[in-house]
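Quick one, tokens below. Sequence please?
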């Protein structure tokens, strides 16, 4: 694994114990890349863990949640 992010060893072990595969990736997004990811999500081949969905007006709360290191999925802001 590359980068300076947190160690994902425990996450990989938990996934394996549940019969799941944990994959992590990063990229510099382009229109084509985002379209490819959209296709994967729509086919059900890629699932994203969502922890919180908040209205845009609560962006400050979303930021606070992200800093707690207790979020287990993405924080989504809606219009």
């Amino acid at each position: 694994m590359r980068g300076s992010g947190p160690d994902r060893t425990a996450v990989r072990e938990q996934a394996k114990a549940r019969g799941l595969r944990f994959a992590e990736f990063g990229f510099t997004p382009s229109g084509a890349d985002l379209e490819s990811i959209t296709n994967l999500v729509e086919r059900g081949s890629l699932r994203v863990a969502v922890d919180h969905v908040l209205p845009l007006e609560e962006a400050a709360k979303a930021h606070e949640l992200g800093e707690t290191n207790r979020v287990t999925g993405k924080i989504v802001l809606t219009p």
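Residues 1-47 form one domain. The radius of gyration is 15 Å.
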